[in-house]
Design a protein that fits this description.
Keywords: ATP-binding, Isoprene biosynthesis, Kinase, Nucleotide-binding, Transferase. The protein contains eight helices and twelve strands. By secondary structure, it is an alpha/beta fold. The protein has one domain: 3-Layer(aba) Sandwich (Carbamate kinase). The strands form two sheets. It has an eight-stranded mixed beta sheet with strand order 3-6-2-1-9-11-12-10, with helices on both faces. It has a four-stranded mixed beta sheet with strand order 5-4-7-8. A hairpin with a 3-residue loop joins strand 7 and strand 8. Bound molecules: adenosine-5'-triphosphate and Isopentenyl phosphate. Isopentenyl phosphate (IP8) binds next to helix 3, helix 4, strand 7 and helix 6. Isopentenyl phosphate binds next to helix 3, helix 4, strand 7 and helix 6.
């Protein structure tokens, strides 16, 4: 079983609020549809926010740790993410991928230490019935903090653990994690050796950019790959393009 994240930076124009990158989303949907035709592996998709969600969260001062008790602020962030989710679902459905939504705001929560609790029974039943569940970064209730952001990367990690994923892929706007000479780093096994080159996102991003991504993926049992859109098809066909985090 594969857990795949479509980075918000790939499927949107991240520096222009609420702007889809329609071409990139179509290319991603084409690659997914092509492997669904031939493949039998279960697939769970998570997408990030890009220019949907991060701008709204930033305007309301909401991050993964700073919450809000203002329901309209939470709905503003959630609404941007469900709008993007509709675009993603539609492009997949147009290609006969049986994609169905799972909205984390209604399914997950954090405890007072910020630990994510994401029940996955519904995702497992969807998979067993042949659907492709599509989750997304969102706001979720957070004990003692109101509602905070949950990143697509956190959801990927939690799903990979709970569903014992065989493969985890993060399709981003870069061909992998880059070193200080902009070459793709093949393999990352610990945070400290790459900490100096890991930055945040160049665009508005409340969830930590590449540094947050690597940190989240390092704790996983399954190896994870970070790669660019040009390598999505090869990842889905079983290769390990870009950077492997294990
Ligand atoms: N060493 C690095 N190698 C590659 N990218 C890096 C590095 N340091 C910082 N970055 C930044 O991280 C970005 C990718 O992180 P980002 O969180 O934007 O990705 P995403 O998951 O695709 O998007 P989103 O968080 O919106 O879902 C790159 O576009 C780049 O600007
Ligand atoms: C900002 C929100 C609501 C979602 C963030 O998800 P990410 O783009 O995966 O970090």
């Amino acid at each position: 079983m594969i857990v795949l994240k479509l980075g918000g930076s790939v499927i949107t124009e991240k520096d222009r609020p609420e702007t889809l990158d329609g071409d990139a989303l179509e290319r991603a949907a084409d690659a997914i549809a092509a492997t669904r035709e031939s493949g039998t592996e279960d697939l769970v998709i998570v997408h990030g926010g890009g220019s949907f969600g991060h701008h709204n969260a930033s305007e309301h001062g909401v991050t993964t740790t700073e919450g809000t008790h203002d329901a309209s602020a939470a709905l503003d962030i959630h609404g941007a993410m469900t709008t993007l989710n509709q675009f993603v679902l539609r492009r997949l459905l147009e290609r006969d991928v049986e994609a169905v939504p799972v909205h984390p705001f209604s399914a997950a929560a954090r405890d007072s230490k910020g630990e994510l609790d994401l029940p996955t029974g519904q995702v497992e039943t969807m998979l067993a019935e042949g659907f492709v569940p599509v989750l997304h970064g969102d706001v979720i209730a957070h004990a003692g903090a109101g509602a905070t952001v949950v990143s697509g990367d956190e959801l990927v990690a939690e799903l990979a653990r709970a569903l014992s994923a065989d493969r985890v892929g993060l399709c981003s706007t870069v061909p992998g994690v880059l070193d200080d000479g902009d070459a793709v780093i093949d393999r990352i096994a610990d945070f400290e050796t790459v900490a100096d080159v890991l930055g945040t996102s160049e665009a508005t991003d409340v969830t930590g950019g590449m540094a947050g991504k690597v940190r989240t993926l390092l704790g996983l049992e399954a190896a994870a790959s970070i790669f660019g859109l040009e390598s999505l098809a090869s990842f889905l066909e079983g290769e390990n393009p870009g950077t492997t985090i294990d």
